[in-house]
Amino acid sequence: MKETSSLTAYVNNGFVPLEKAMVHIEDRGFQFADGVYEVVACFGGAYLDLQPHLQRLQRSCDAVNIPLPKPMSELEDLVQQAYAKNPFKDAMVYIQVTRGVAARSHVVQTTMTPTLVITVRNLPKPSDDKLKTGVKGITLQDIRWKHCEIKSIALLASVMGKQEAAKRGADEAFWLDEQGHVLEGCATNIFAVIDGVLVTHPLDHQVLGGITRDMAIQAAQNAGIEVQERAWKLDELGLTECLMSSTTNAVMPITAMNDAAVGRGIPGEMGLKLRALMLLKLDDLRAGVKSS
Ligand SMILES: Cc1ncc(COP(=O)(O)O)c(C=O)c1O
């Protein structure tokens, strides 16, 4: 891991060494989790779906009535500068916007200047072991709020879910609705392969519209795989595979759920195919940077 002393963050109108990057204790992000965020991956200088990530940031800001702190083009430029100022080839760029700083009061009293923070870290990639064996999941009753389509920084439920997963030797916790339908993970979307069809929960208030979810659906459809966006359960007849998707995972096979094997308990054909197709796209991205 790189020393944090060599890292640079953007905080409210300027780049500063990460260790000096501070926000006020009365920032509403700290006081109320009153903010939204984005995580975008950059491969050797080429961004994976930067525009869709920035558009989702705009949608999240609109949904909670926080003005976008900079015009889109400036935000894009700041993301690029942040990447360039940090020492990682493949990086994860984190953008956080909060409503800003004010004396603590639930009701917003004044016109506020939003806080904008951008940090860059190495892009974590699934280990070789995980690629071979697939990941383990657990399921939990969804205890989150009713606006999961907003990429809110209020992630306490997700932190609790991830901690429970780690405690039980699993990699991710997946939320179930009251009827037992599988919604999404703490930081991933989830798909099942049922009778050869790729199935995932439709986009509504219970799931985040993952940019990688879209990418996986697109890759599947281009490869002639049928995709259904519908509610589904783990015990459906014909379920042979589960997969999770996110910016940092692309697509990963889930081979166990609550300590029981999913399908044959090994990464399945569809998961491996989709993962390979998505990695090809990443290779194209990298190659595009080299040749330009
Ligand atoms: C709740 C939730 N669902 C899904 C995802 C995956 O989204 P993306 O593919 O845009 O990374 C995330 C990512 O952080 C998430 O937090």
* Structural class assignment: alpha+beta
CATH class of the largest domain: Alpha Beta
Number of domains: 2
Number of helices: 7
Give the strand tally.
15
Unreliable sequence segments: none
Describe the protein.
This protein is α+β, with helices and mostly antiparallel strands and 292 residues long. The protein folds into 2 domains: 4-122, D-amino Acid Aminotransferase, Chain A, domain 1 (2-Layer Sandwich), CATH 3.30.470.10; 128-283, D-amino Acid Aminotransferase, subunit A, domain 2 (D-amino Acid Aminotransferase, Chain A, domain 2, Alpha-Beta Barrel). It contains 7 helices and 15 strands. It has helices at residues 28-32, 50-64, 72-84, 128-133, 156-167, 211-222, 269-291, and strands at 8-11, 15-17, 35-43, 46-47, 90-98, 115-122, 135-141, 172-176, 182-185, 189-194, 197-200, 227-229, 239-246, 250-257, 260-261. Strands 7, 8, 9, 10, 11, 12, 13, 14 and 15 form a 9-stranded mixed beta sheet that branches. A 6-stranded antiparallel beta sheet has the order 2-1-6-5-3-4. Helix 6 crosses helix 7. The model has no long low-confidence stretch (mean pLDDT 96). Pyridoxal-5'-phosphate is lined by residues 39, 184, 187-189, 208, 210-213, 245-247.
